[in-house]
């Protein structure tokens, strides 16, 4: 199935042209004896890695590898495999035989969530190999297990699912074997579509051609990449919805859902126009651009899981977003009638589509919004199962828990499944945005200057 991504073209970026001599000097390039690899590369049973640990307890910020990009050239100089592009991840490549290669994938640090991201490009470089022939890739994971079946692209922009290329699987996922058909053209192989900062920029540029969409920069990542903000409104005195995405680099389906969701808000529909007349939607579409650029499994460039940093605020990315959020109404300041925040959504990906919400009895503004919204989505898509987990991570330092507890506002983590059909993501995300707009348009307006806002002034209940 072609994973067409609609109006936002996906660009794979080769960060630099590959020079053969520099390739051969690269320290990780190696062609080692076949017998040694055959001995070492048995599908042996290995211990699975432990789950997430406190990111601050066992490592220093400087201890993670900053770049995983490397390029491999085969012994006969006829096959080139590289991860030197934005989002690429291949830590090592070894040649087993003329057409068999062992690729090792490592996380950016130890003790990490098992979201084993990989992305590399492979091509035959010898003229006589321009006819189709297969190569075998044995993908082996250090500190993680196989999560993402491959997607492939011939241009780095248009992707198709390619689980059929997997020919062998280790019983607990430590290794998989893929058979990849090669011709004279490069082929990208990755855990999900490559959706990097430049792709998001193209999408945001396209959106901001409309007069009701403006762009700004709210800060910089650890490595100096800009953190972009979009403002979508036609109101001079709006209420606010705040959306963030991509704290976790491999979670591409969540980013795709976010783009469709925001497209619906910014689009030409009458509903979108009505919503923008009343609300401003603030979007920070890429909270972790360094992690995405380096093909990280989970963290930013300091090796910190940003969605466990929403109490420490030890990282520039979380601080930058928090600095924006604290401009809105707080529990202690609930009679201020400006900058009223009505909803916070953080887009992610997991194994299935699910809404991680605060507990159902949370005393948050707007009252009962979560249940009303999820009910409306279910009513709109009766054959689609709307899943809610209502007490997820409420005591962890997540964005959702922080917004709910600090601002007293409805906060939801909206997850799309890794393998949810991309057409389904488009229709559900668009429908969810429209149901959100309908409900929020009906929310009573805030009172005029100086009057007290009739919202919660009690502590939110998060238990
Ligand atoms: Zn996530």
Write the layout of secondary structure elements.
Layout: E1 2-3, H1 20-25, H2 34-40, E2 71-73, E3 79-82, E4 92-97, E5 100-105, E6 119-124, E7 133-141, E8 151-153, E9 159-161, E10 166-169, E11 175-182, E12 187-190, H3 197-207, E13 213-220, E14 226-233, E15 239-245, H4 252-266, H5 270-278, E16 279-284, H6 289-293, H7 316-325, E17 341-350, E18 354-356, H8 369-380, E19 388-389, H9 399-407, E20 411-417, H10 422-441
Parallel strand pairs: 5-7, 15-16, 15-17, 17-20, 18-19
Antiparallel strand pairs: 1-9, 2-3, 3-6, 4-5, 6-12, 7-11, 8-9, 8-12, 10-11, 13-14, 14-16, 18-20
Helix pairs in contact: 4-10, 5-10, 8-10
This protein binds zinc ion (ZN).
Residues 248, 251, 307, 348 line the site of zinc ion (ZN).
Task: Describe this protein with a few key phrases.
single chain; 463 residues; alpha+beta; Aminopeptidase; seven-stranded antiparallel β-sheet; 20 strands; elongated; binds zinc ion; Zinc carboxypeptidase
Description of the structure:
The chain has 463 residues and is an alpha+beta fold. The protein has two domains: 2-190, no CATH class; 197-441, Zn peptidases (Aminopeptidase, 3-Layer(aba) Sandwich). It has helices spanning 20-25, 34-40, 197-207, 252-266, 270-278, 289-293, 316-325, 369-380, 399-407, 422-441, and strands at 2-3, 71-73, 79-82, 92-97, 100-105, 119-124, 133-141, 151-153, 159-161, 166-169, 175-182, 187-190, 213-220, 226-233, 239-245, 279-284, 341-350, 354-356, 388-389, 411-417. The strands form three sheets. Strands 13-14-16-15-17-20-18-19 form an eight-stranded mixed β-sheet, with helices on both faces. It is elongated. Bound molecules: zinc ion (ZN). Residues 248, 251, 307, 348 line the site of zinc ion.
């Amino acid at each position: 199935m072609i994973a067409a991504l609609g109006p936002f073209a996906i660009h794979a970026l080769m960060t630099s042209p590959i020079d053969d001599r520099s390739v051969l000097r690269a320290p990780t390039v190696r062609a080692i004896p076949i017998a040694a690899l055959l001995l070492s590369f048995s599908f042996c049973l290995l211990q699975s890695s432990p789950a997430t640990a406190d990111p601050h307890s066992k490592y220093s910020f400087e201890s993670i590898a900053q770049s995983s990009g490397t390029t491999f050239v085969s012994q006969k100089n006829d096959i080139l495999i590289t991860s030197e592009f934005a989002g690429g991840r291949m830590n090592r490549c070894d040649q087993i035989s003329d057409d068999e290669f062992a690729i090792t994938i490592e996380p950016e640090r130890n003790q990490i969530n098992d979201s084993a991201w990989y992305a590399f490009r492979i091509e035959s470089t010898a003229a006589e190999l321009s006819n189709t022939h297969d190569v075998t890739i044995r993908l082996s994971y250090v500190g993680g297990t196989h999560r993402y079946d491959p997607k492939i692209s011939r241009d780095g922009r248009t992707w198709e699912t390619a689980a059929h290329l997997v020919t062998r699987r280790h019983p607990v996922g430590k290794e998989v074997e893929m058979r990849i058909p090669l011709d004279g053209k490069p082929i990208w192989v990755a855990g999900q579509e490559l959706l990097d900062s430049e792709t998001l920029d193209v999408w945001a540029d396209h959106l901001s051609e409309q007069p009701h969409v403006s762009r700004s920069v709210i800060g910089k990542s650890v490595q100096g990449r800009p953190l972009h903000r979009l403002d979508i409104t036609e109101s001079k005195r709006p209420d606010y919805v705040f959306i963030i995405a991509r704290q976790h680099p491999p979670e591409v389906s969540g980013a795709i859902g976010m783009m469709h969701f925001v497209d619906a808000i910014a689009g030409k529909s009458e509903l979108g126009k009505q919503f923008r007349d009343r609300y401003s939607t603030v979007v920070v579409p890429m909270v972790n651009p360094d992690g995405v650029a380096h093909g990280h499994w989970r963290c930013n460039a300091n090796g910190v899981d940003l969605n466990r940093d929403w109490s420490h605020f030890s990282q520039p990315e979380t601080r930058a977003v928090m600095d924006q959020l604290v401009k809105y109404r707080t529990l202690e300041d609930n009679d201020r009638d400006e900058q009223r925040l009505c909803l916070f959504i953080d887009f992610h990906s997991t194994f299935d589509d699910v809404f991680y919400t605060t507990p159902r009895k949370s005393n948050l503004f707007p009252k009962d919004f979560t249940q009303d919204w999820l009910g409306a989505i279910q009513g709109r898509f009766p054959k689609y199962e709307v899943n809610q987990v209502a007490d997820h991570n409420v005591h962890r330092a997540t964005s959702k828990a922080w917004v709910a507890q600090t601002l007293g506002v409805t906060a939801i983590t909206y997850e799309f499944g890794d393998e949810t059909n991309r057409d389904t993501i488009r229709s559900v995300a668009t429908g969810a945005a429209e149901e959100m707009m309908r409900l929020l348009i009906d929310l009573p307006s805030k009172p005029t200057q100086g009057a007290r806002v009739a919202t919660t002034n009690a502590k939110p209940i998060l238990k």
